[in-house]
Amino acid sequence: MIDITGPVQAIASRIPQQFTPPLISRVPQFDAVAQLAELTDGDPANFFRRLDELADDGATIESTAAHALVLTGLCAMDLWNIAQEFIREATLKAPLIPTSPAVAIQLTLYGVECVTRAAVRVERWEKELEPLAERLEERAAAPVEEHTNTYVSPETTPAAATLAPPAEPSPVTGDNAAGKAAVAAAKSQIGTPYVWGGSQPGGFDCSGLTSWAYGQAGVEIPRTAENQAVGQQVAYEDLQEGDLVVWDGHVAMYAGDGMMVEAGDPVGMSPVRTNNLGMAFKGFWRPTA
Prior knowledge:
By secondary structure, the chain is an alpha+beta fold. It contains six helices and eight strands; from the N terminus they run αααααββαββββββ.
């Protein structure tokens, strides 16, 4: 007795399962990041660059998965067609099998042929998926630039993020009245809330605080942080009160004893550091020199 169901079951077992591609190219909206960066004197460029990379990776995964889904569907359709061909042939010839052994042999051989065709089609499908898998593996293996958030707020200052100099700045000799007066003015604003563009008591941004403080000491300096690298650049060990700690998007004022005053939210004191949100550090500057 010929087994008509055997070839059909063998073909059906090779039909690949359908799947639903993941929807991951849509990343959350971060429209407020740029405004937040302004409020914290940060640079959102790296964040948005990484956000673009994330969206690009997600789009690649989605498009690759969608392509794989199409190939899988085509393979499944071909296998079903092969199974249907055998079923039609078996339906036509089954009544003749009891009286014609030759028909039984022919149908058996045709069943073997259909199963072989199905195996070849599955092998082709697997080869079609190989470049898609390689594309995803390349994405997964791509090096990721190491990034550490080095911003330190005035209220929380991890020791690992602070400057660790070999020694404290040496005592200042000579007159530094303007620098000391600027520090006194800046310290008088501790607790003042951060206001982007603020340069008066009641609300300061980073460069607004330092320019206002020096103005109280009778010294005029540029208004923006990146332009406050003026006067004489000094080494850490030569710092004195009033010297400015300058990045390309933030500025603070050295207040003595390894501390600086800066416009966080609110204005406060923090240990001297040379890192801030990945900004380029421009050094220590003495506007009065």
